[in-house]
Amino acid sequence: MLIAYTTGSFPGEYIPPTFRNYSASATIDSTVLNLGLWDTEGQEDYSELRPLSYPQTDVFICAFSVVQPGSYQNVVRWYQEVDSVCPGTPIVLVGTKVDLRVDSV
Fold it and tell me: Cα angle vertex 31, ends 25, 36, to 5°?
């Protein structure tokens, strides 16, 4: 998601998102904002390292796959982790892979 946003194209192959940093700019109401985007990886292996990147964060984007129920179940844990380090900081919840979802009738 961050690669596609910052480069304007979707990568052809899977790139493991292990603590990668990206930069981009966005214009909102004629104001140019410089964005520092960190993919802190939701895996348990990085649970002690993730909070080190949280200070001075203005907003969190918490992404989960709509086709992997376990991914959504992690949202509660991630919310608690973020809120304990940066209480009151906005969190945006993003469901990904909606194009792969199969709805049952």
Answer: 30
